[in-house]
Design brief:
Blueprint: E1 3-14, E2 21-32, E3 36-40, H1 47-54, E4 62-67, E5 70-71, H2 77-87, E6 88-92, H3 103-113, H4 120-129, H5 145-157, E7 163-167, H6 175-192, E8 196-199, H7 203-206, E9 211-216, E10 219-225, H8 229-238
Parallel strand pairs: 3-8, 3-9, 6-7, 7-8
Antiparallel strand pairs: 1-2, 1-4, 4-5, 9-10
Helix pairs in contact: 3-5, 5-6
Bound molecules: adenosine-5'-triphosphate.
Adenosine-5'-triphosphate (ATP) is lined by residues 14-15, 21, 23, 41, 43-49.
């Protein structure tokens, strides 16, 4: 399997001198194509920093990040913006939809920002897959939280990105809706071959992934394949995450 994302000895230090915080310490990790990976760890362990460095949203202090074989180190802000727009999809906790735009306009926004044409067949297919075919003309305020997150997932998929990053994508949803959205993320991995990397606090959410990376104090301290919610919760407890 080819790696879509590869981090080699990535460190990230925030601040300088006495106030410096090492958020990542020499992290090496690879995410194979077509896999669903959850990133877990106690609060402050570096999960968001990992995601931001892997996605080109933040620049590591040292080390190498490669996305689909492209080295990110040394890229300027314009190049990174272009890369994020065309090759990466994002799903955030807070949906981040534009209230004045309807479903189709929100979903196709990344294409329009990138100056790319909208493939109507692909758009229809994505809307069908996320279960929004009847909602194309609705505004975000006319949709439930789960439906809004489905719009965000469709928007993340529309550019056919190499990887979709999720930052607590189910953090704002109730349990049932969260499970539906997690099921959908797993479905886009299994049936579309999409690669998904998701930061979560929730062992149940992590159990939808094919594997889990555990971060503690800026380091990857463990990995688990075929995770179950119980096994993940037990591992987190041993890390002192719930102390
Ligand atoms: N912009 C910043 N400036 C200074 N310190 C930062 C900054 N961003 C993160 N940190 C610090 O880096 C460390 C890792 O933060 P990060 O947000 O990656 O952890 P996390 O595991 O995602 O935490 P949480 O689960 O609470 O969201 C923490 O000690 C945090 O305080």
């Amino acid at each position: 399997m080819t790696d879509v994302v590869r981090l080699d000895a990535v460190s990230k230090v925030y601040g300088k001198g006495q106030g410096a915080v090492a958020a990542l310490r020499e992290v090496t990790a690879s995410i194979p194509r077509g896999t669903f990976t959850a990133v877990m760890g106690p609060s402050g362990s570096g999960k968001s920093t990992f995601l931001h460095c892997a996605a080109g949203l933040d620049v590591p202090s040292s080390g190498s990040v490669r996305l689909g074989g492209t080295e990110l180190a040394g890229m300027g802000e314009t190049e990174l913006t272009e890369l994020r727009r065309r090759r990466v999809g994002f799903v955030f906790q807070s949906f981040n939809l534009i209230p004045a735009l309807d479903v189709v306009e929100n979903v196709t926004l990344p294409l329009r920002l990138a100056g790319a044409r909208v493939d109507r067949e692909w758009l229809a297919e994505i809307l069908r897959r996320v279960g929004l075919e009847g909602r194309a003309g609705h505004r975000p305020a006319q949709l439930s939280g789960g439906q809004q997150q489905r719009v965000a997932i469709a928007r993340a998929l529309v550019t056919r990105p190499e990887v979709v990053f999720g930052d607590e994508p189910t953090g704002a949803l109730d349990t049932m809706t969260a499970r539906e959205v997690l099921g959908l993320l797993r479905e886009v991995v299994e049936s579309m071959g999409q690669t998904v990397v998701m930061v979560t606090h929730d062992p149940v959410a992590a159990s939808y992934a094919g594997s889990v990376l555990f971060l503690a104090d800026g380091r990857i301290v463990d990995a688990m394949s075929a995770p179950t919610a119980d096994k993940v919760a037990e591992r987190m407890t041993r890390m002192g995450a719930y102390a």
